[in-house]
């Protein structure tokens, strides 16, 4: 039972770190265009023309 003295604060700290990481991603615009990424995979890009050497 003495180990709970260490495990509970560590678990709370990991939860707070996860929440901070999520809020940081939310503020940086990570979740702005979810539909664009989903539809972008369906369309082929035109082939690139390589420069002649």
Automatic annotation (TrEMBL):
Keyword Transmembrane belongs to the record: yes
Ranges annotated as spanning the membrane: 6-26
Key words, A-Z: Membrane, Transmembrane, Transmembrane helix
Pfam families referenced in this protein's UniProt entry, alphabetically: FixS
NCBIfam families (alphabetical): ccoS
Protein name: Cbb3-type cytochrome oxidase assembly protein CcoS
Source organism (scientific name): Roseicella frigidaeris
